[in-house]
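Re: Re: ligand-bound prediction request (bumping)

Still looking for help on this. To restate: I need the protein modeled with flavin mononucleotide bound, output as structure tokens. Inputs repeated here so nobody has to scroll up.
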Amino acid sequence: MPRILVVHHSKTGNTRRIAEEIAEGCDAEIEEIVPRDPHLGAWGDLIDGLQAIAGMRPALAPAVRRPADHDLVVIGTPVWCRSVCGPVRSYLQAHAGQFPAIALFCTSRWPGGASVLRDMAALCGRTPVATLALREHEIVWRQYGARLDEFLRLIGERRVEPLLAAHEVPA
Ligand SMILES: Cc1cc2nc3c(=O)[nH]c(=O)nc-3n(C[C@H](O)[C@H](O)[C@H](O)COP(=O)(O)O)c2cc1C
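Reply:
Sorry for the wait, this slipped through. Here it is.
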């Protein structure tokens, strides 16, 4: 059975909510990316924003699961100052070269998710099999069902490829 891992960071729950729905929709394991020293409150948001602008990579708590043990890794980030959030940037760097197939998603308040997804793909060094950029209001009002279904369909197509290939190998 192909193994899928959904990794994400979330401060206020939007990205976590989508990560949980993706994991449920494709029968995946899930892992939250946790900074070693989380920045809390308004002051913490300011530090996180400045670090995101500077492309800094905060230290992370140890990961439990290894991307290399999976067939596909779904990676989700909130947009911070038009960038990948610091903890996800750290995770991508820590696991560079270890990613199998990837799918990417992000959540943001304003438009601009597409460029963050492109940056994430570049940091992974891979072309994603599926991408999904959701806005906060879509999440709050649950207006993402059809797009999430399409994202899961693309992941599902990628997931069955190795099985089909095994069956189709000529005797
Ligand atoms: C430090 C910080 C910077 C942010 N910068 C942006 C931004 O540049 N563009 C945007 O659309 N949303 C921005 N947001 C809003 C978040 O991307 C949005 O609320 C997201 O859904 C939060 O995800 P979460 O609930 O998983 O933490 C920012 C939020 C924080 C905390």
